[in-house]
Amino acid sequence: MIETKGLTKYYGSLAAVVDLNLRIAEGDIFGFIGPNGAGKTTTMRILATLLEPSSGTASIDGKDVARLGKQVRRVVGYMPDFMGVYDDLKVFEYLEFFAAAFGVARGRRKATIDGVLELTDLEGKKAAQVDSLSRGMQQRLQLARVLIHDPKVLILDEPASGLDPRARIEIRELLRELRRMGKTIMISSHILSELEEMCDHVGIIEHGRLVFSGTLEEIRQRVGLHTKVRVRISGDLDKAVEMLSVLPEVQVVRKLEDRLSVTLREGGSDGGLIAKTLVQADIGLLELVPEQLKLDDAFLQLTKGIVH
């Protein structure tokens, strides 16, 4: 659905994006990750037909964004990282303005606006002044705006930026619902953990160059983030360390005060052999819990060039 080949953008002598090759499948949520200034926004503006590339190509739904911009804009909804609101406009007036701008027929505008308000859970704010909305509601209103013309593709530049935890969760659930509706979504962030629960694939960009593209599991394999389990026992910790360290699925065992941290080898189980070994040795097993993998650590390694 979205594809770039050798996409490059210079601002004078500054290379903002260099030889970028991306493929995003139809119906995917693709997380575009990178530090501030990495080239995320430039790439998204090119895809949204707001910037022309210096070289290379980009296409959406088979249409070249540089040559067929008008056709591309019919299938794309672009939400910038910050969009100012219009003073003295009510929510329905704001959406009515954009419905007219997108060419929605006058007879269909009310139903279209009511539909996007329902989808974004803003029906109760239909008559509210736009500039009176909270930051989270303004972000939902921006999503309602980009959905006005029912685009196939959504390009969202850090839509959760500046939101409180509840608003972030609400935005995440809304994006999942849009995927269920068949939308292809490209969403940028500089926080990998923010996107890990909803993205099918991610691309990591630094200094304008793509340093990784693939699934979250492929990130783990790339940087060696193996599965870990936390083990608490009633018994001799040293004995447990000695027994678990020789298991074929165990890479390393670390003793941490009153518990053990066990790192499993790639392809290892969920810790069933650990539990069996401890029980057979009459060591009381109090807890065996998988530890949350810190994908932000993977992001830091990849963007600092630790992994080659």
Explain what this protein looks like in three dimensions.
This protein has a 6-stranded mixed β-sheet, with helices on both faces. It is built from 11 helices and 14 strands. The protein has helices spanning 40-47, 69-75, 91-101, 106-119, 135-147, 165-180, 192-195, 216-223, 237-245, 272-280, 295-303, and strands at 2-11, 14-24, 29-33, 55-60, 63-64, 76-79, 153-157, 184-189, 201-206, 209-214, 228-234, 250-256, 259-264, 284-290. Helix 3 (91-101) crosses helix 4 (106-119), helix 4 packs across helix 5 and helix 8 (216-223) packs across helix 11 (295-303). The radius of gyration is 24 Å and the shape is elongated. It has 2 domains: 2-218, 3-Layer(aba) Sandwich (Rossmann fold); 226-292, 2-Layer Sandwich (Alpha-Beta Plaits). With 308 residues, the chain is an alpha/beta fold. 35% of the residues lie in helices and 29% in strands.
Write down the overall geometry: elongated
Strand order in space, largest sheet: 6-7-8-3-9-10
Name of the CATH first level of the largest domain = Alpha Beta
Alpha plus pi helix count: 11
Q: Kindly report how far apart the N and C termini lie.
A: 29 Å
> The biggest beta sheet, please?
6 strands, mixed
Low-confidence stretches: none
What is the β-strand count? 14
- The named CATH superfamily of the largest domain: P-loop containing nucleotide triphosphate hydrolases
Structural class, from helix and strand content?
alpha/beta
CATH topology of the largest domain: Rossmann fold
Helix content: 25-40%
What fraction of residues sit in β-strands? 25-35%
Taken together, the total number of domains comes to 2
- CATH architecture label of the largest domain: 3-Layer(aba) Sandwich
Helix-strand sequence: EEEHEEHEHHHEHEHEEHEHEEHEH
Radius of gyration: 24 Å
- What integer is the average pLDDT? 87
